[in-house]
Amino acid sequence: MLMDKLRSLITAEIPHLRRYARALVRNADEADDMVQACLEKALARASQWNSDKGLRSWLFRIMHNDFVSTLRRRDRERAFHRRYPETDSVPPSQENLFELNQVDKAMDRLPVEQREALLLVAVSGFSYEESAQVLAVPVGTVRSRLSRAREALREIMQSRPLESGSFEVRRDG
Amino acid sequence: MGNGNAIDSAVLSDYVDDELDPVRRRAVERELANDPDAAETVRAYRDQADALRRLYDPVLDEPVPARLLEVLERADGAGGAAEGTPGGALRGRIRRVLPTAMAAALALAVGSVAGWVVRGNLIDAEAQRIAMQMFLNEAVSSYSLYARDDSPWSRAGLLEDRSEFGSWFNTERELEVFAPDLDEVGFSFVGGRALPASRGSAGQIIYQDDDGNMIALHFEYLDGQRPRDTLQASRPPSRSTGSYMEHNDVSIFYWNSDSGSASYALLGHLEQDGMRSLGEKLVAHFN
After folding, report:
1. Which residues in chain B are closer than 8 Å to A8, comparing Cβ atoms?
2. What is the pTM of this model?
3. How confident is the model over B22-32, as pLDDT tens digits?
4. Distance, in angstroms, between A122 CA and closest chain B CA?
């Protein structure tokens, strides 16, 4: 009975998990792999869920941890460079960033910490406090990552205004 | 941050995210009024967030892949129990946190959302998505054909009395539609017409502002014999708040009614903010 309730609660969160995963890895299948792993872990750890913290933050935290360890495992060296030098600098742009889906390429240039902070707050609608819980960092860190992400993104996209030229609502897979 | 802004960009970020207490918020608002650079930064941050949501929000409307739902189905008791999760412990925790009435209300709300994804309505959700694409195609064609000033058909079949529109459309299509009054937001009623539709009944209501900008509200109601219950269950509630998109030079704000039996699209050449606020007004009118 209670498991049923938790399953319903988790099911309702799937679209939110998928949106976040898709934004992080940009490949629909890979993103759904992440969500699947997250759901499996969440159900296995159902007893650890502390409802004070909110189901969504808990699920996002599981997925974030998985994402970070996958990055580490897959390419330690690259992960090292992306994780540790949290710089304000952004590689110079060679592309014309005037298509909406170029925003996602611009996002891909951000250090992964900044990208996560921006997605959690601006897309998933988490507060700074909740984002800090998901990422397991102090609120001040979320705040500075977010601010740097926005400044960097602005720098990348400043040159051209955004347009969406396509009628199709873009959907992968 | 070194570019001469009086306000630190992190504070502007806090402001955009509504993370400031009321006193500091008012202080930032005062400064923004006198600092065009900072105001521009705030606008840029908001545009970023908006672009990101336009980019990633469509994922929310996608049908959930079966393999993800299967994870939850597999967990039917066995998973939790095998991990040593006695139902009693979980029950105790939930009961401690949620008062019973609230828990019941929550379960009810979640049930209706979960029903959309769980009860095998994946095909419905896909059909719904395609229906929305078709509806938007029709809305854009009709707009281009009839709602532009230079169209030879701009007055064709147009009923120009707002108060009569509802009853007239009712006799035409056996449906009650009340054309909203948009005078207070600067748009006056030009006229309305019935239109052919691939499913159900459609129509178009046209408004114009003082500068001659025309906007069209395109609507479509499903036939009575359509399986309304199914459609209702197949749509996530978030849909009814509306979405924004652009097609060539036309801005479009579109949404479905809460009941799931009607679709609406507002089309025009307005800026996104203008379209959104007008669209939201119309969502409220029709729901």
Report:
1. 107, 110-111, 114, 118
2. 0.49
3. 999 999 999 99
4. 5
Contacts of B110 in chain A (CB under 8 A): 5, 8-9, 12
What pLDDT shows up at residue B124?
60
Residue count (chain A): 173
Residue from A58, A50, A8 nearest B92 by CA: A50
Q: Using the beta-carbon criterion (under 8 Å), do A103 and B51 form an inter-chain contact? A: yes
Considering only residues A84 and A7, tell me which one the structure prediction assigns the higher pLDDT.
A7
The DSSP-derived string for chain A is -HHHHHHHHHHHHHHHHHHHHHHHH--HHHHHHHHHHHHHHHHHTGGG--TTS-HHHHHHHHHHHHHHHHHHHH-HHHHHHHHS---S--PPP-S---BTTHHHHHHHTS-HHHHHHHIIIIIS---HHHHHHHHTS-HHHHHHHHHHHHHHHHHHHTTS--B---SSPP---
Expressed as residue numbers, the domain containing A112 is: 93-165
> Residue B72 is nearest to which of A10, A22, A49, comparing CB atoms?
A10
In a domain, A173, yes or no: no
Would you call B83 and A44 a contact, using CB atoms and an 8 Å cutoff?
yes
In a domain, A67, yes or no: yes
A7 and A25 inside one domain: yes
pLDDT tens figures, A88-114: 444 434 333 345 666 777 888 899 999
CB B279 within 8 A of CB B267: no
User: Which of A84, A101, A133 marks a domain boundary?
Assistant: A84
pLDDT at A100: 61
pLDDT for A141 beyond 60 = yes
> Tell me, what's the ipTM?
0.76
What is the tally of structural domains in chain A?
2
